[in-house]
Structure formats: structure tokens, C-alpha cells
Design goal:
The structure is a single chain. This protein is α/β, with parallel strands linked by helices and about 290 residues long. About 40% of the residues lie in helices and about 20% in strands. It has a 4-stranded parallel β-sheet, with helices on both faces. Strands 3-2-4-5 form a 4-stranded parallel β-sheet, with helices on both faces. Helix 9 packs parallel to helix 10 (about 225-240). It starts with a strand and ends with a helix. The model has no long low-confidence stretch (mean pLDDT about 95).
Length: about 290
């Protein structure tokens, strides 16, 4: 059995910068309480590492960011790599909290583009994942931003404004986005479109899409990670026989390796490199 690592895979620059910023904040403020409003990046191992440093992650699928912020009375609050609404940022300032914004530069770029089009009188169609923090931050900008998560929602959307702009969450599938773009042009002939899938996401997706001799693909990452889940989707649509999402090597079932000649390992942009290496080392140990 042959084992190969898909290149590129794992951490992107936005994730690296967010983690570095969080750790530096702890170094610079060793005696202050430090909170992350949500998961800094969508990987539970990263959250655990930060907690071991004394950085508290406040994340609850039921509570809103506003409600989570109510739980912080003092110290420093770090906003995640996915972006944050201006109202929450202002609320933190009003509470007298020190703020550290770890928003990815690519996410900020998309937000600024959307703000520009909204200010110019456009309605914005935003392709993203419902309840994802990046999408929530964008939707907070204006009521003229319409979230769509699939083709059906695009088809049922009704916008009377002659000025329509389409863009997307940075971690979506380039295949789905391309199909949506073509349909949007039919529905709104004068539509303005800008692809905002970040380079890290698109390069990892393309690497998976270009696999031609893969019997089994392990995608290492957290199920909360949108870019990780999109790698799984693309691999399945590619026709790879077995596609398995795992958090680390402990999730590997030896039975899945039966009748497999070539195994590839990839990972989402929020997956620590150590987890990828451990998966590959474990697979190699099975063969030895």
C-alpha cells in the first residue's frame, strides 16, 4: 500500500496568524483573563491547546455571540479568524474590555468589498453556510445582503433592485460557486460578480480534484470546519472510492484499509500539521 500526503494541505496563513496573535496576547498579558469569542479556528485541538495556555474559548451552538459576550466582565476578548460584526465589537468596547481582532485578512477583504457595493446601492447575494461565523459577520453589515446556501435558494430569491452583486464566503466550494455564478447571470443579466474563495481554500480543493489514482482519502480536520467539509464534498464528487473525515489518527479503522492500494491524506486549513503527520506515521506503522 502506498501512502501520500496531498500538497498543499493543513494550516493557511490566516490560521497561523490567528494562533500566533492569541499566543502573543497571552505572553504580553500573563495576568489578565483572556477569552476567545467562539472557536479561534474550527479545530478542537487548537482550542484545547489555547486552553492549556490559560486562554478560555467561549463557544456554544445555542448562544449568540452577543450572549457569549455577556459572560465576559473583564479582561481581553479575542475575535476569531472568521470575522465579527461591528455591533459586537462596539459592545465589547463599551463593556471596557480590551479587544484583539484575529480576523483573517482575506475575510476582511471580502467584507470591505461587500460594504462598498452596499454603499453604492447594490443588493448583495452572498453564497455561504448558514450560521457560520464568517457568514454571520457579513450578514450583520446590511439587510440588503441575501444569504444563499445552494442553487435552489438562488432560484427562489427575488430581488427587484437593478443593481445586484454576488460574492461568497471564503471557504466555499469553487465547483458550487461556478455553477451558481452561471445561473445568477441568467437570472440577473447585469449582475456584478467577484469570486472570494481564498487562495488557501481553492488550492487545497484543486489538489483533491486533481487526484486520479486514489483508493482512499483521509481528510483530517474538525467537522465544524467548512473548508474541511468542502474537501470531503469535492472528493466524493470526484468519484474517489472511499472518503473519510477524521479528527486524528485515533479515528482510523484498520478495516477501511482492506483492498486499498493507494491512500492519500489531506487536511483542512485549520488542521494542525502535527495531526497530519501523526496520521501518516500511524498508517506507515500499520504497513511495517
Amino acid at each position: 500500500m502506498e501512502i501520500k500526503k496531498v500538497i498543499p494541505s493543513g494550516y493557511c496563513k490566516g490560521v497561523v496568524n490567528a494562533i500566533k496573535l492569541a499566543k502573543q496576547t497571552k505572553t504580553d498579558n500573563p495576568n489578565e483573563k483572556i477569552y476567545v469569542l467562539g472557536m479561534l479556528v474550527h479545530n478542537s485541538f487548537v482550542s484545547k491547546e489555547l486552553e492549556e495556555l490559560g486562554i478560555i474559548t467561549l463557544d456554544d451552538s445555542i448562544k449568540t455571540k452577543q450572549e457569549l459576550l455577556d459572560e465576559i466582565d473583564e479582561g481581553i476578548v479575542i475575535f476569531t479568524a472568521h470575522g465579527i460584526s461591528e455591533s459586537i465589537k462596539q459592545k465589547a468596547i463599551d463593556k471596557g474590555l480590551k479587544i484583539v481582532d484575529a480576523t483573517c485578512v482575506d475575510v476582511l477583504k471580502t467584507q470591505n468589498i461587500i460594504k462598498q457595493y452596499v454603499n453604492d446601492g447594490y443588493d448583495v447575494i452572498y453564497f455561504g453556510k448558514a450560521k457560520h461565523p464568517e457568514a454571520e459577520a457579513v450578514l450583520s453589515i446590511s439587510n440588503n445582503i441575501h444569504l444563499i446556501t445552494n442553487m435552489d435558494e438562488l432560484n427562489t430569491l427575488s430581488i427587484e433592485n437593478d443593481k445586484v452583486f454576488l460574492t461568497n464566503q471564503t471557504t466555499m466550494s469553487y465547483v458550487e460557486l461556478s455553477n451558481l455564478m452561471e445561473r445568477a447571470k441568467q437570472l440577473y443579466p447585469n449582475i456584478v460578480i467577484e469570486k472570494e474563495i481564498c487562495n488557501a481554500t481553492s488550492s487545497r480543493q484543486m489538489a483533491v480534484a486533481n487526484l486520479n489514482d486514489c483508493d482512499l482519502l483521509y481528510v483530517v480536520g474538525d467537522s465544524k470546519s467548512n473548508n474541511t467539509n468542502k474537501l470531503v464534498d469535492i472528493a466524493i464528487k470526484k468519484g474517489i472510492k472511499k472518503v473519510l473525515l477524521i479528527q486524528n489518527f485515533n479515528d482510523i479503522n484498520k478495516a477501511d484499509l482492506n483492498n486499498v492500494d493507494k491512500v492519500y491524506v489531506t487536511a483542512g486549513a485549520s488542521t494542525p500539521p502535527t495531526l497530519i503527520d501523526e496520521v501518516i506515521d500511524y498508517l506507515r506503522s500499520i504497513l511495517s
